[in-house]
Amino acid sequence: MSTILEMRSITKEFPGVKALQDVSITVERGHVHAICGENGAGKSTLMKVLSGVYPHGTYTGDIVFEGETMEFKDIRDSEKSGIVIIHQELALSPYLSIAENIFLGNERARRGFIDWDETNAEAAKLLARVGLGDSPTTVVREIGVGKQQLVEIAKALSKNVKLLILDEPTAALNDEDSAHLLDLIRHLKGQGITCIIISHKLNEIKAIADEVTIIRDGRTIETLALATGDISEDRIIKGMVGRDLEHRYPDRSVAIGEEIFRVEDWTVHHPTDHDRTIIHGASLSVRAGEVVGIAGLMGAGRTELAMSIFGRSYGSRISGRLYMRGEEIQARTVPEAIRNGLAYATEDRKVYGLNLIEDIKRNISAAGLRKLAPRGWVDGGGEHVVAEGYRKSMNIKAPSVDAITGKLSGGNQQKVVLSKWLYSDPELLILDEPTRGIDVGAKYEIYTIINSLAAQGKAVIVISSELPELLGICDRIYALSEGHITGELPIEQATPEALMVLMTKEKEADHVIG
Amino acid sequence: MSSASATRPASSRSEVLGFLTSRLRQIGIFVALIVIVLLFQVLTEGRLLTAGNVSNIIVQNSYILILAIGMVMIIIAGHIDLSVGSVAAFVGAMTGVMVQDWGLPWWAAILLGLLVGAIVGCWQGFWVAYVGIPAFIVTLAGMLLFRGLTQIVLGNTQITPFPNEYRQLGGGYLFPQLFPAATSPAEWITVGLGLLALVMFIASQLRGRMKRAKLNLETEPLWWFIVKVAFGAGLILFLTYLLGVAPGSRGTPIVLIVLGVLVVVYTAVMNRSVFGRHIYAVGGNRHAADLSGIQSRKIDFYLFVNMGVLAALAGIIFTGRLNSAGPGAGNLFELDAIAASFIGGAAVQGGVGTVVGAITGGLIMGVLNNGMSLLGVSTDYQQFIKGLVLLLAVAFDVWNKRRARG
Most-buried pick from A38, A160, B95, B378 (CB within 10 A)? Predict the structure, then answer.
């Protein structure tokens, strides 16, 4: 047994956040090595460091590959050494053929002209190795996601891959495709190709991995040898969720009042694929002063549920009923949802939450501008005063409310988003990943703000992939799995293990509970 | 650093410099206009800033400037409009048909012309906002469509002449018969309007500053405020002198009044109205705007309606000035209006730009045209130089943005 890769005390910082801290990992040649951790634990960042997406010099620590210290400048550089990463979002060009995709950037050409016969013949050989029977000339968008995944792997093989990194390879696949993919990984292992696989799916990891390294909050927790077979899923879950909940969450006094908001039998279909059900008959309720969590793994439909409630911003063929203080409301558009007292702070601040080229005050007033402009003309001074008020009460760290939001840190940007929604004066706030990409200190501040909202009698729904966070700030937690609400736990009964069980529950099981 | 009194002059100088560089993006365009004006004033040996020539620059560029107002709004929202030249020609032709064939009075033709512009805007806005076809395609089609309609309406001939009143909008001056400049040393209406504009300008600046001071929001140093107001006041006085007092002055072009009102109104709309603020929000981040309850489709639709009306106005003014509606009218107007917007600091990705910037950008192009014509530079060189100016202006903007970020 020999070591193919060693990453030694890798530390990677983003402005305001330490994404990786002193992470070390050793991978044996010809093994399948799994990396496990919650969303945001730093798995993908680590793989981006390894594959040169974050070039040498932007992180500290050493990468030793096949006995040599590597300093990758970019992906091409790492690919030359035989390290190929396949990202969660596949990087195929939809209108090109399978063969063209396989040799993209690496074309079979003579003096600048593509040799199509060689391209297609070579592609066919590679497709045979991954067990894909389609013709190399098939256009990629005509084959399913499972097959596209195989094309990605064939592409990696064309680059003489020695170490293949798969980031959540089965996240978008159905069971059959997943099983096929796992078989293929075993097969490649037999050919001497080393694999690093990032996955949430513990049963898959157990089925395929030789070792598993657990990462939490940007640190390596431990590496377990699975080959001996005595490692249980519980053991991995324990490593993933950790035990240090004290002092990371502010204390709060809970005063829960009457029900504010209720969803009944909410069903949502995919926006373009109208037959695919994303949310299956979900029902939930929130009371005044209550912070309710929604827990679920990636792809469980958390954001889809929230956005479909908020003015049908997501999905098609939506059915179900919404009640505000016991009365049924309609929220078919975002303005209607806002009028009815809903607010939704998005998971992705930069893409969906803020106008980054605009200043703080105009972002804060964006959702409630009418309040400052009773006759259509904005009271600029009043707007400044409102924004200044939020800058102080929210402790937004910026020289003035004229500062451009794009230049603020993640935590301060999030405070601007929260200010915007507070100014729209909602009864229910849905906060989707309110602390993603925010450092620990600012997280504490955000939690304090959430508590004070609840104390003011607002109803709050928090969506988070970090279980400790939900356990630290919520009064009640719903678990969502594959679009089904698979259970509801009051905080006294909620443990990471109990939630993880609900979150990974398969479809058939939810009928028992739901 | 150690002794405050010793480093005082240096630090205040660096403070001034720091403030100026922070405002470089806004100031740069005005500085560029002044430099170009001074350059041509010298090169033409004083022929640029004469009463007659300044009056010409205003009238000749008025329709481009009006188009630039609508264009910069569309660009801020992240779209483009390639059809405005054709729309202007089409409306000019339609008003011609109205007065000549239908025998409508001049005012009815103008009003109906603006209505035609609004309908054209509805048509294009519908495709962009509600069908979701990129504005580039919709307005490229519109460019062909309305050029074609113009030719169909005119049957490949020109309509001329137009009623005298109609022509005033494009080429007329304010009551020249009341106070002919030849008999009186000063054109009193122009001087009166100039002084009125001066008082309103200073009053609005002072009121704004006092309001900000009261709310404790003033961030602008006093010296800069004084420089700014003095510069603006000087500009108004100089223009008043050239149009109303200087030898050869002809009084106030009517189109200058129209333009002035449009600039003031649209600046207010963009800065202070909910509609204007929503345009910036949609252009800056459409997703975030949608999720903040801003109806971005409605904004897009009304922007094109607005552009249609402004294009109609430009077409009417142009037709009046030439006293004829021809099938080739308004050719390449769209490109001048787009260039004016970008020279004036609008961003290709949307979200950034100002009406005053676009007007200044349009004036830079206008002064370049006029100055080079005075110098006898042939039109092929004029095109070449205008192209270069557009490229450099946007390059400066890109550089400035990168500097601000890094």
Answer: B95
Asked if A346's CB is within 8 angstroms of B271's CB, the reply is no
Whether B208 and B262 map to the same domain: the answer is no
Of all helices (H) and strands (E), which one includes residue A60?
Answer: strand A59-65
**Boundaries of every domain in chain A:** 3-241, 245-341+426-514
Q: 3-class SS at A88?
A: coil
Out of B217, B252, B287, pick the residue that ends a domain. Answer: B252
Shared-domain flag, residues B63 and B192 = no
The DSSP letter of residue B103 is: -
Q: Name every residue whose Cβ is closer than 8 Å to that of residue A54 and which is 6 or more positions away in sequence.
A: A12, A45, A48
Q: Which of B270, B282, B292 to mutate to test the interface with A (most CBs of A within 10 A)?
A: B292
Range of the domain at B235: 180-252
| Type of residue at A227 | A
Same structural domain, B307 and B383: yes
Residue of A nearest to B215 (CA): A381
Higher local confidence (pLDDT), A418 or B179: A418
Task: Give the mutation candidate from A310, A338, A377, A379 for the B interface (greatest B CB count, under 10 A).
Answer: A377
Residue B69 lies in a domain: yes
Evaluate whether A387 touches A361 at the Cβ level (below 8 Å): yes
Chain A nearest C-alpha distance from B351 (Å): 7
- The number of C-beta contacts closer than 8 angstroms across A and B is 87
- pTM of this prediction exceeds 0.90: no
Ranges of H-type helices in A394-493: 410-423, 440-455, 467-473
Per-block average pLDDT, block size 10, for chain A (514 residues)? 88 79 92 83 87 90 92 90 86 90 87 89 92 91 87 91 90 78 91 89 84 88 78 74 62 85 94 89 94 88 94 92 94 94 91 91 93 90 91 88 86 92 94 81 86 92 88 93 92 89 68 39
Contact B272 A358 (CB under 8 A): no
> pLDDT class for B208, splitting at 50, 70, 90?
confident
Question: Which residue in chain A is spatially nearest to B275 when comparing CA positions?
Answer: A376
Q: Which residues of B touch A (CB under 8 A)?
A: 211-212, 214-215, 217, 219, 268, 271-275, 277-278, 280-281, 284-285, 287-295, 347, 351-352
- Asked if B245 and B203 sit in the same domain, the reply is yes
Are B129 and B301 a contacting pair, CB within 8 Å? yes
CATH architecture of A245-341+426-514: 3-Layer(aba) Sandwich (3.40)
Same domain, B167 and B288: yes
3-state secondary structure of A140: helix
Counted domains in chain B = 2
Strand arrangement, sheet containing A83-86? A83-86, A163-167, A194-198, A32-36, A211-216, A219-225
ipTM for the whole predicted complex goes beyond 0.95: no
- Residues of A with a Cβ under 8 Å from any B Cβ are 310-311, 313, 333-335, 337-338, 344, 346, 351-358, 362, 365-367, 369-370, 373, 376-378, 380-381, 384-385, 388, 400, 402, 420, 424
Pick the CATH number of A3-241 from 3.90.226.10, 3.40.50.300, 3.40.190.10, 3.40.120.10: 3.40.50.300
Fold identical between A3-241 and A245-341+426-514?
Answer: yes
